[in-house]
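Final report, Chapter 2: Outcomes

The project's central promise was a pipeline that accepts a single protein chain and returns its three-dimensional structure in a standardized token representation, suitable for archiving and comparison. That pipeline is now operational. To close this chapter, we reproduce one record exactly as it appears in the project archive, with the input sequence first and the structure output second.
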Amino acid sequence: MVRAPLSGGLLAAVAPDDVAALMGGAAVKLPNCGVWFGSAGSVTPLHYDLCHGFLCQIVGRKLFTFVAPDDTRCLHRRADRPEVADVDPDLWSGDGEAAAAERARHPAFAELSAVWSVELGPGDVLYTPPFWWHHVRTHDDGPALSVLVPFDPEADEAPHPCLTLVQSKFPEANAAEFSNTAGEGCAAVFDACVPRSRITRPRPC
């Protein structure tokens, strides 16, 4: 996956100020916006971000898999990067010896309450709340190009309880800098922006 600055024709086509209207007119920081290029089959590991993110799909298709922050304890996070999960959802749900070994290494993943999956095509826009875990795979039929328009959390957004897990690794983290994603507001925006989402469950071991 490769990132480039948002500029030129893509900047005009995406119109970040229009996306900002979905956030109540929040300020757009263009340096934080980016164009993401992914080759066929490329994967971004399961992780969360600290910002509100709107992903505009331009070319190709991507499959997003979401896990709510309340299920953070099921994700076998990396010791050196607690915002990234060690489990591979695709492999975990697959067949064969490698998949069985992945399930054996990450048994808690079977305890997830739910998983949301949605496939994006050209013209789709996807909202990802802060702290929502997401795994991204570019479809095998070709490369993909997307534009990410992020927004900082508001100062009055309380941190999600899973932040305490991060602070246990990084005590210097400032909770005021992080956002609450378990509230009904974010959930409502998530549901509105992902009308094709479907609830699934990991396959049991």
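Archive annotation: The radius of gyration is 17 Å.
This record, like all others produced under the grant, will remain available to the consortium after the project formally closes.
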